Structures are given as structure tokens and as C-alpha cells.
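A.,

Following up on our hallway conversation. C-alpha cells first:
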């Protein structure tokens, strides 16, 4: 019974790291190259989806405690928010583009 529970905690940790990495990647891409943000967003979406879906079977099999379910839910909400922020950033010009546009004659 300890092995499935250890797998649950491992997958929840991987979920948190994946969401943080994707959010950081989307934020950096917006600062450096806003035109490539759409492509990066489409590449990050499957990773965010997989990070949210992979812990579910382990949570069901391991009869996981409420804390694990809560952390999984928080990670899933964070993944949705990371995608939503990345999608919103697509419509906002990058700070560098705004600086170059304002420095003209």
C-alpha cells in the first residue's frame, strides 16, 4: 500500500514542477518573443494536460488522503490558470515591442 501512495506524491510533485516550468516558459517567451508565444502555448498545452491527468489513476488506486486530492486539484487549477495567462499574453504586445514602437520619429 505504501508504493501506490509514494507514486501519488511523486506524480503530484511532477505536476507542480511541470506547471511551474510551463508558466515560466510562457512568461519568458512573452518578454523575449511575443510573436512565438502562440507556438509555445500550443506546445505547453499537452504538457499541462498530462500533468493534470496523470495523477488521477494513482489517486484512485492508492485510496489517497484528502491532502493529496486537494494538492492535485490545486495543481490542476494552476495549470488552467497558466494556460489562461499564456493565452491572454498572446493579445498583449511584449514590453520590447511597445518600447520599439514608441521610440519612432
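Then the amino acids I'd put at each of the 105 positions:
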Amino acid at each position: 500500500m505504501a508504493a501506490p501512495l509514494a507514486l501519488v506524491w511523486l506524480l503530484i510533485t511532477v505536476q507542480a514542477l511541470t506547471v511551474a516550468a510551463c508558466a515560466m516558459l510562457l512568461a519568458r517567451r512573452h518578454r523575449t518573443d511575443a510573436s512565438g508565444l502562440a507556438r509555445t502555448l500550443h506546445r505547453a498545452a499537452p504538457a499541462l494536460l498530462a500533468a493534470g491527468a496523470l495523477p488521477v489513476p494513482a489517486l484512485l488506486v492508492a485510496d489517497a488522503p484528502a491532502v493529496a486530492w486537494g494538492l492535485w486539484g490545486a495543481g490542476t487549477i494552476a495549470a488552467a490558470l497558466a494556460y489562461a495567462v499564456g493565452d491572454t499574453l498572446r493579445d498583449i504586445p511584449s514590453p520590447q515591442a511597445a518600447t520599439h514602437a514608441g521610440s519612432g520619429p
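The two ends are 70 Å apart (CA to CA). Curious whether your intuition agrees with the design.

B.
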